[in-house]
């Protein structure tokens, strides 16, 4: 069996690293998750702020996705013992890092979407 010549450094990406990366892409790519992360990056902290910034999401789904993102270590939930209880959500440092790293993908999408529309 012959192997193809390596190009652009792809030979240095092993399968285990690729699977780990894929897991993160699946979390971000899951419906509503990127919108929730973007709302958090733009300053949403209260549930109602998230809901207002994400058109079309239901309360049930927002709750579910915030819980999933919390389990992934991308969002932290803080309960302040006030009357009534105040719950705040914030991106973790890892969540903020992920949002910064997604910027080149957003630029890639913008560039290629424009090309596919004009073709």
Topology at a glance:
Layout: H1 15-29, H2 33-41, H3 47-53, H4 59-71, E1 75-80, E2 86-91, H5 93-118
Describe the fold and architecture.
It contains five helices and two strands; from the N terminus they run H-H-H-H-E-E-H. The chain is mostly helical. The protein has a single domain, classed as Arc Repressor Mutant, subunit A (Orthogonal Bundle). A two-stranded antiparallel ribbon has the order 1-2. The longest helix is centred in the last third of the chain and has 26 residues, at about 95-119. It starts with 14 loop residues before the first helix and ends with a helix. The mean pLDDT is about 85. Pfam families: HxlR.
What is the fold named in CATH at topology level? Answer: Arc Repressor Mutant, subunit A
CATH top level class name: Mainly Alpha
How helical, in percent, are the residues? Answer: 55-70%
Please mark out the parts with pLDDT under 50 across 5 or more consecutive residues, or reply none. Answer: none
The description of the largest β-sheet is:
2 strands, antiparallel
The strand order across the widest sheet is 1-2
- β-strand percent reads 5-15%
């Amino acid at each position: 069996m012959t192997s193809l010549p390596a190009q652009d450094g792809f030979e240095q990406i092993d399968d285990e690293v690729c699977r780990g990366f894929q897991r993160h892409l699946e979390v971000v790519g899951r419906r509503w998750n990127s919108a929730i992360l973007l709302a958090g990056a733009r300053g949403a902290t209260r549930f109602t702020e998230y809901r207002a910034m994400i058109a079309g999401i239901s309360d049930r789904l927002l709750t579910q996705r915030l819980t999933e993102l919390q389990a992934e270590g991308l969002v932290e939930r803080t309960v302040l013992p006030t009357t009534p209880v105040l719950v705040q959500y914030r991106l973790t440092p890892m969540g903020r890092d992920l949002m910064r790293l997604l910027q080149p993908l957003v630029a890639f999408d913008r560039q290629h979407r424009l090309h596919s529309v004009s073709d």
